[in-house]
Amino acid sequence: MSTILVVDDDKEVVRLMRGYLEKAGYAVLTAYNGETALHMIRRERPDLVLLDLMLPDRDGWEITRIVRTDALLAQTPIIMLTARVEDANTIVGLEIGADDYVTKPYNPREVVARVRARLRIQQGLPEAAQLPVLRAGDLEIDVGRREVRVDGRRLTLTATEFDLLHILTEQTGYGLTRQQLINRALGDDYAGLDRTLDSHMRNLRRKIEPNPRQPIYIKTVYGVGYRLERE
């Protein structure tokens, strides 16, 4: 679980952002002034800081400068929050080391999305927005969010079921051998029984097919493996 430090002298803003971030699955720390924020950054080492620019003691610019010149803290992502909209402020904030900049009033959901995207970059993961949404007929696979929908209805898949469907969707219209599917979804060193793959496919069909006995999406290629139909 990533930890986010929210720094703002407006306690209502802090309360609101804390609620949205915790709902998104993050642990949240809070501070209402710059001095406390610096103390918590040094002691708690949060994964990301949401930092208000205008604070009653040390402002956001000063805190960012201090963090960026400390070798132990320099890689901490910082997203600045401010009511000052001048372009010069944005440029200064980014030049001294802020990773992103959000102007008040803002949509808390947008801030959470910025946090999520920044943490993906920091952790070396691709951003969800850069990953494809794959489609076959009424079947939609959002690779970044690992979500699957049929006719707009979200399905609950296991990790292996999602991986198998993702692999098939990448090669829509082409038959993949059982060994190809096993290697890519279960790992090259998988030493289990072949029928494990068939069990996963049966479960997958139960979830995505209107009639699993007469599948329209996942077809069996006899003697080979499976194929996902284009339409």
What does this structure look like?
Helix content is 40%, strand content 21%. By secondary structure, it is α/β, with parallel strands linked by helices. It folds into two domains: 3-128, Rossmann fold (3-Layer(aba) Sandwich), CATH 3.40.50; 133-228, Arc Repressor Mutant, subunit A, CATH 1.10.10.10. It has a five-stranded parallel beta sheet with strand order 2-1-3-4-5, sandwiched between helices.
Can you tag this structure with a few keywords?
231 residues; Arc Repressor Mutant, subunit A; five-stranded parallel β-sheet; 8 helices; 21% strand
Strand content: 15-25%
What is the number of E strands?
12
Distinct helical segment count: 8
Estimate nothing, just give the exact number of structural domains.
2
Low-confidence stretches: none
Radius of gyration: 23 Å
Strand order of the largest sheet: 2-1-3-4-5
Secondary-structure arrangement, i.e. CATH architecture of the largest domain = 3-Layer(aba) Sandwich
CATH fold naming of the largest domain: Rossmann fold
Strand count, sense and closure of the main sheet?
Answer: 5 strands, parallel
Helix content: 25-40%
Instruction: Give the CATH level 1 class of the largest domain.
Output: Alpha Beta
Distance, first to last CA: 39 Å
Give the oligomer, counting copies of the same chain as homo and different chains as hetero. Answer: single chain
Please tell me what the overall shape is. elongated
Order of helices and strands: EHEHEHEHEHEEEEHEHHEE
CATH superfamily of the largest domain: Response regulator
Quote the average pLDDT. Answer: 82
Q: Structural class, please?
A: alpha/beta
